[in-house]
Specification:
Elements: H1 7-43, H2 46-61
């Protein structure tokens, strides 16, 4: 913007960054479900698992770009 770049070019760049972050978040969730959630089920830690899944649901439901996942 300071270099007098066309607004549409800046918007395209921010869009690409947002989409890249969304892909990273999707991979994090997928890996979390496959590993940490599976381990919690195996360990019988249902209460912590449920709290974690509710937190994840709220984050995803709010379309937050910041996903916090605890293993």
């Amino acid at each position: 913007i300071e270099e007098d770049t066309h607004c549409i070019d800046v918007l395209r760049q921010t869009y690409v960054v947002r989409k890249a972050i969304e892909k990273i978040e999707a991979l994090l969730v997928e890996n979390h479900l496959a590993s940490c959630v599976h381990q919690s089920i195996t360990d019988g830690d249902e209460e912590a698992l449920l709290a974690e899944l509710v937190q994840l649901y709220h984050l995803i439901g709010n379309q937050s770009s910041q996903v916090i996942v605890f293993c």
